[in-house]
């Protein structure tokens, strides 16, 4: 990792990548040169870049190891989702992946639920939904453990202070 700019979720992704193939694509980093090609294509079409070029660049940004790139990719996909009906399905799927990758699990769940609402038997959407639910559950268990540890520490400190005052 370099200077705190990377997401810090690489270990989490390696676990989920082995268990959930749906996450594998977005976890494969893109070479900076490849991202530059996508950016150059987008820039060459300005001011009216095509939705496909915008989508391709957003996809590349999601595959970056830099969190600010991933967040920029999610922003582009959000715009495409709301403004380009023909790209709604693809944008929504990659919004779910991108939101998962940057740790916005509630948003990822919401996007996946929308996808499953339209295509309830889609195995790719089901797998992504399962990965999101597993991560939310895992984080909840860890959160409960941390909260329990803090509570125990607080009770211990209060007990120690009470004994000291006697």
Automatic annotation (TrEMBL):
Alphabetic keyword roster: Membrane, Mitochondrion, Mitochondrion outer membrane, Transmembrane, Transmembrane helix
Recorded topology in the membrane: Single-pass membrane protein
Keyword Membrane: yes
Record keyword Transmembrane helix present: yes
Superkingdom, taxonomy of origin: Eukaryota
InterPro entries: Fis1, Fis1_cytosol, Fis1_TPR_C, Fis1_TPR_N, TPR-like_helical_dom_sf
Pfam families: Fis1_TPR_C, Fis1_TPR_N
This protein's GO CC annotations: mitochondrial outer membrane; peroxisomal membrane
Sequence intervals crossing the membrane: 140-162
GO biological process terms held by the UniProt record: autophagy of mitochondrion; mitochondrial fission; peroxisome fission; positive regulation of mitochondrial fission
Compartment annotation: Mitochondrion outer membrane
Biological role stated in the UniProt entry: Has a role in mitochondrial fission.
Similarity comment: family membership: Belongs to the FIS1 family.
Domain notes per entry: The C-terminus is required for mitochondrial localization, while the N-terminus is necessary for mitochondrial fission.
Protein name per UniProt: Mitochondrial fission 1 protein
Natural source organism: Hyphopichia burtonii NRRL Y-1933
């Amino acid at each position: 990792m370099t200077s705190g700019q990377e997401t810090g979720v690489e270990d989490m992704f390696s676990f989920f990548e082995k268990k959930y193939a749906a996450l594998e694509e977005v976890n494969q980093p893109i070479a900076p040169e490849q991202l530059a090609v996508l950016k150059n294509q987008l820039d060459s079409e300005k001011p009216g870049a095509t939705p496909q070029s915008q989508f391709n660049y957003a996809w590349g940004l999601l595959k970056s190891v830099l969190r600010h790139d991933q967040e920029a990719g999610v922003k582009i996909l959000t715009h495409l989702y709301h403004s380009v009906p023909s790209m709604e399905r693809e944008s929504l799927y990659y919004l779910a992946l991108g939101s998962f990758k940057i740790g916005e699990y509630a948003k990822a769940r919401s996007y996946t639920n929308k996808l499953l609402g339209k295509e309830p038997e889609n195995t790719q959407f089901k797998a992504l939904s399962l990965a999101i639910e597993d991560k939310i559950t895992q984080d909840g268990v860890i959160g409960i453990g941390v909260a329990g540890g803090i509570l125990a520490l607080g009770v211990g400190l209060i007990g120690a202070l009470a004994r000291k005052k006697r």
